[in-house]
Amino acid sequence: MKKTKHFQKKGLFLVFLAFVLTFSLTACKSEEIAPTEQPAEQATEAPATEPAEERSIILATTTSTQDSGLLDFLLPEFKNDTNITVNVVAKGTGAALELGKNGDADGLLVHAKAQEEQFVKEGYGVERFDVMYNDFVIVGPENDPAGLKTNAPNDPIKAFELLSENKSIFVSRGDDSGTHTKEKSYWEKAGITPEGDWYISAGSGMGAVLQMADEKQGYTLTDRATYLSMKDELGLMIVTEKNDLMYNQYGVIMVNPEKYPIKEAEVQEFIDWILSDRGQNLIAEYGVEEYGEQLFIPNAKK
């Protein structure tokens, strides 16, 4: 009886041992064929793509192209067409030309033709091209205390004589801009040196000067485009306009790449674009729907 129990225990032990050995061999085999997991740091990654180099230029320009909203209209279209960003520095034409002379701009879009031609003649610019024009107007308060609308509706020289005689408040740009240059030519033709409390030299851009003239219920000389773009915010009306002396031509110039390390290729693309049918048609289009008339008239020579 005891012997039988002994064999039974031994048999159970052998069965258990066989089970353990079978399980161990299976586990080992599974480990041998299991794929080795690749460490995360060794995982293959797609090579990073370097961002394309941004193309851009610095354009020194007059405040009227900025304040009128023209550049806000044109430059996104230019960026879409060329992928070139235009960084605008808006100052009076005199200051914009100085930026060019110092090599602090790649190109210029300004409106004082005699100064622009001198800039090129002195070797600071490559060539000057007509782009567009509009005209200057004299604006003043609706009650027109100097009587310009009645007595000098189309004569800026007579208008300036009346302003001086009546000591009517006049706000000058006073910043050597194209508008200021034009204003000074009127005073010179009238034989008048403006001075006194009535004559205010602001040293500011066109938009700021219009706001100042409005606040002081005075007069000022402005390009038509900036005035029209701000008209609804002002209590000023046009009192003198439409004289050949009030013509306002804009030009574009590349700063001389032989003098300064400018973005020559990009500036040339900008000049070609703004003189092209594409650029000229956009200039002609600007303002018509909103203001009922063109703010700038394209006149690039084909």
Low-confidence stretches: 1-44
CATH architecture of the largest domain: 3-Layer(aba) Sandwich
CATH topology of the largest domain: D-Maltodextrin-Binding Protein, domain 2
Measured between the Cα atoms of the first and last residue, the distance is 125 Å
Class derived from helix and strand content: alpha/beta
Q: Give a count of the beta strands, DSSP E runs of length 2 or more.
A: 10
The total domain count is 2
Silhouette: globular
Helix content: 40-55%
Mean pLDDT: 87
Biggest sheet character = 8 strands, mixed
Structural write-up:
With 302 residues, the chain is of the alpha/beta class. It has 2 domains: 129 residues, Periplasmic binding protein-like II (D-Maltodextrin-Binding Protein, domain 2); 112 residues, D-Maltodextrin-Binding Protein, domain 2. It has 13 helices and 10 strands. Strands 1, 2, 3, 4, 7, 8, 9 and 10 form an 8-stranded mixed sheet that branches. Helix 7 crosses helix 8. The N and C termini lie far apart (125 Å).
